[in-house]
Structure formats: structure tokens, C-alpha cells
Amino acid sequence: MSGGSGCPALAENLAITKNTNTEVTAMKKHTLALGLIAAMGFSTTALAGGAAQSIHVYKSPTCGCCGDWIDHLEENGFEVTATNSNDMGKIKAEAGLIPGLGSCHTAFVDGYVIEGHVPADDIKRLLAEAPKATGLSVPGMPAGSPGMEMGDRKDHYKVILFNEQGQTRIFNQHN
Question: Are 104 and 29 in a shared domain?
């Protein structure tokens, strides 16, 4: 066999013609183990047995708390794509966000709208339960919510589930 890839290690692993069957089997197991470790990249997501959930966040280019919320999502296993926008009102309107539920950033995950500083665990619960809804919102910017940490200050806030008909219900409460 020929390595042909320009990778000396790969060419060496493929050059097994001089090995006995026992040596070949041992080498294949060793190579497979190293390949699996490399593929996992020691990722906690891979070790947990699941792929990262992709989420797309739209935010103002000047908003610092949006970046902190994105960090919170990434720390909790989400794969985040962020897009800066100078017209967040248009994005919120197109997303079907109902009046009174707005905040500073809007995200989309698996067909749902996520508005504001919604905790990652609530997003995971939404995805697991998969209710018929438009999405979740944390209206405003409550202190102590993810991305809005302010020392020991933790305001009570509600995570609201909403649908296209404008109906809402409390999905969770925090602090």
C-alpha cells in the first residue's frame, strides 16, 4: 500500500506488509485507539455522548452582555454562531416576537426563537420537551441572569414560553 497523503505517520501505519498477523492486529488496535482519541479531541461534549446543539444568535455589535450570554451557552455545550446586526427590531419582528417580550439579543435553535438572557438549561429543556410554541423569552435584562451577572445582585425573573397566537405561560423562574 502507498501512503500517498504526504503524512509520514499515516504512511508508516499503512506499511504493514512486514508485520505478522499478531503485530498487525496490535498495530490496528493501537492506531484505532489513537484515532478515536484524536477524533474526540478530548471534547467534553464528545465524552458526554452527544453532539453540540447549534444556535444562531443575532445581537447588536456594541452589546457586551450579549457576548457574555454567548459565553454561557458555549460553556454549557452549545455551538454558537453570532451575527451582528444594526436592525434588531426587524429580526425580532420576523421571528414573531410578541410585544412585551423583547430583550437585547435574539437566537434561533431547532426551529425555536430564544429572546434575551434565557439560561442554557431552559433551552435544553425546551428542546427535550419540544412543545408546540414559538420560543422562550426573558424580557428585559434582569440582573443575575446569564450574561447579566452583577456580583451578588440576583433579581427574580421568569422565562416565558410564547406561541404565534400571542399566548404566554411561565416556563421557569429563577433567583
Answer: no
Q: Does one domain contain both 68 and 23?
A: no
Give the contacts of 119 (CB within 8 A, at least 6 positions apart).
72, 145, 146, 159, 172, 174
Q: Where are the beta strands (DSSP E) in the chain?
A: 53-59, 78-84, 106-109, 112-116, 135-138, 157-162, 168-174
pLDDT digits (tens, 9 = 90+) for 4-15: 333 222 222 223
Q: What is the pTM of this model?
A: 0.72
Q: Are residues 149 and 82 part of one domain?
A: yes
Phi, psi at 79, each rounded to 5°:
-100, 110
Report yes or no: 14 and 1 within 8 Å, Cβ to Cβ: yes
